[in-house]
Amino acid sequence: MTKSRPSPSACLAIGALGALGLADDATGHLPAPARLAGQLAAGATLGGTGWDRVLSGVATAGIVNVTNFMDGINGISSLTGLVWGVNALTLSRTGSDLSIIGALVAGGSTGFLPHNAPRARLFLGDVGSYALGGAFAAGVLSRPSLPERQQAAAPLLLYGLDAAQALAHRYRTDQPLGVAHRDHVYQQLVDAGLNQISVALFHAICAAGIASAHRLRTRYAVTTVIAVSAGYLAAPHIHRRFSKLNLANADETELDE
Questions:
Q1: Is the pTM for the entire model greater than 0.85?
Q2: Of 8, 26, 49, 157, which is most buried, counting CB atoms within 10 Å of its CB?
């Protein structure tokens, strides 16, 4: 008989992380050490024994936090959830934890999208982003081998890269790491004048491209992942350059007239 729900450990982890996010929303701000401890503890339930529990806790905390960091414009979390969920369904057999969680995430993201984009009437908040990150982590960690986990996590690669480059930029410029900022790629694109839905779609298309790369031969897969990742990270610089060129051309046209 096919399972109809994720394993108890996955349900426990996702529920605990959602409750942690709800507590953060309700209080206005839980202390960072308390949030991290809760994330690590919830993630540890997704591991086996010993070091696997430790690594699962660390991986879960990382996934939950980047999911929370990236939930900053309309539609980006829903579209990423849809891409991740569809990818999960293509990777796993019916009834596995990954397939069930993938179906739930894809369905929930699709249902939430019209309420969050193009005009946001509802927001995930910490409760939603923590639960979504927990679902991502539970699905990824349900896979038995490292290559399978990498395939399940592939749509989230840009989340990690975007968060990492933002933190690296703040470190290089001696800015506080824990203060709100506008250094993420998606924030830079919106600040440059692109509308939020276009940016969210751009991110989702790039994430889908990376998720599909494993179907290619190894060397082509690696090249695709590197090219798409580099293109995403460079997008704000490319957009600014073309904007300056267009502005210069417009000024020359006005002078000629």
A1: yes
A2: 157
